[in-house]
Design a protein that fits this description.
The chain is mainly α and 92 residues long. The chain has one domain. The chain contains five helices and no strands. It is globular. The chain starts with 11 loop residues before the first helix and ends with a helix.
Length: 92
């Protein structure tokens, strides 16, 4: 992840923009999305996968999207998750 402190309201698109300098698949995805005027910015991950399919993107692009979606969700949730919730999930 980027290491930035994030609030719960950061959108996936905004988070993805911040990843553009990464030297991995998520960075590649970010740069591709930023250069694609038709990239779905306010729609869920399913629509983004459909967009990648329409563009005949490689499997790696889909994997990078899944990884980015997980990282974004983890970053935005971890910033505001109460410690008690963390403890209860670890004990399961």
């Amino acid at each position: 992840m980027s290491g930035d402190l994030l609030g719960p309201s950061i959108s996936f698109w905004r988070w993805l923009e911040q990843q553009r300098r990464r030297d991995d698949g998520v960075g590649d995805l970010a740069r591709d999305a930023l250069s694609d005027a038709d990239w779905p910015r306010r729609i869920g991950v399913k629509r983004m996968h459909e967009h990648l399919l329409e563009r005949h993107a490689c499997e790696g692009a889909h994997d990078s999207l899944d990884r980015a979606w997980r990282e974004w969700g983890g970053a935005t949730q971890a910033a505001w998750r109460p410690a008690a919730a963390d403890d209860s999930e670890e004990s399961r």
